[in-house]
């Protein structure tokens, strides 16, 4: 049995004290599998453990939610109700924001190189599993590909709005596309 493929290795995060302790847990159940025989010889720093826990939660949310990274960091810091000592060791949002953006980018599908790309499943439906890509056709008469994205809720707003706003822009259109066209409906006095 090749245990390397069936386990996850965990090493001590205290590199500053040169701790070489490593354990392995089973990928399927998370149960202990084996260790390298090296004991920890340092005390646990509860503030450092709390910092890792908070940063781990932030990283998970950055990968799972598509809201601005800075908002996620600030929400988690507020929710943590940090003590004065914890505030000293927790990095400022501006110090971790760049790395979190890189983490999110690495998790996203690569940018397509031509208009014949297949839309990744993550962009085909909303978080509530409703269809999001409602039209996707390539036609030679308009020289490319036309894609229309809208959730059923957004379409409902459009259909029940007395006033519609339309805006076409060329400057911020995605690579491979010439124009981004947006329709908004008025709901409760706001463009939605």
What does this structure look like?
Strands 1-2-3 form a 3-stranded antiparallel sheet. The protein contains 6 helices and 8 strands; from the N terminus they run αβββααααββαβββ. It is α+β, with helices and mostly antiparallel strands and 192 residues long. The chain has 3 domains: 33 residues, no CATH class; 62 residues, no CATH class; 71 residues, no CATH class. Strand 2 and strand 3 form a beta hairpin.
SSE inventory with pairings:
Layout: H1 3-6, E1 7-11, E2 22-26, E3 32-35, H2 46-64, H3 69-80, H4 84-89, H5 93-107, E4 133-139, E5 144-149, H6 152-159, E6 164-169, E7 180-187, E8 190-191
Antiparallel strand pairs: 1-2, 2-3, 4-5, 6-7, 7-8
Helix pairs in contact: 2-3, 3-5
CA radius of gyration is 24 Å
Helix coverage percent: 25-40%
Form type: elongated
Number of helices: 6
pLDDT below 50 for ≥5 consecutive residues: which ranges?
none
Instruction: Kindly state the number of beta strands.
Output: 8
Question: What number of structural domains do the residues give?
Answer: 3
Class inferred from helices and paired strands: alpha+beta
Biggest sheet, open or closed, and with what strands and sense? 3 strands, antiparallel
Q: Could you give the order of the helices and strands?
A: HEEEHHHHEEHEEE
Distance between the termini: 56 Å
Arithmetic mean pLDDT = 86
Strand order of the largest sheet: 1-2-3
Beta-strand content estimate: 15-25%
């Amino acid at each position: 049995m090749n245990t390397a493929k069936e386990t996850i290795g965990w090493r001590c995060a205290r590199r500053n004290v040169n701790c070489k302790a490593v354990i392995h847990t089973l990928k399927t159940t998370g149960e202990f599998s084996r260790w390298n025989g090296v004991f920890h010889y340092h005390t646990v720093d509860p503030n450092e453990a709390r910092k890792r826990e908070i940063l781990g939660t932030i990283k998970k949310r950055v990968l799972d939610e598509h809201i601005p990274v800075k908002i996620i960091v600030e929400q988690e810091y507020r929710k943590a109700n940090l003590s004065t000592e914890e505030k000293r060791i927790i990095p400022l949002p501006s110090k971790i924001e760049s790395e979190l953006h890189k983490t999110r980018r690495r998790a996203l599908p690569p940018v397509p190189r031509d208009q014949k790309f297949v839309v990744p499943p993550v962009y085909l439906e909303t978080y509530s599993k409703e269809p999001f890509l409602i039209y996707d056709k390539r036609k030679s008469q308009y020289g490319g590909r036309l894609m229309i994205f809208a959730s059923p809720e957004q379409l409902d707003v459009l259909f029940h709005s007395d006033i519609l706003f339309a805006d076409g822009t060329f400057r911020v259109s995605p690579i491979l596309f010439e124009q981004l066209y947006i329709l908004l409906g008025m709901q409760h006095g706001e463009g939605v």
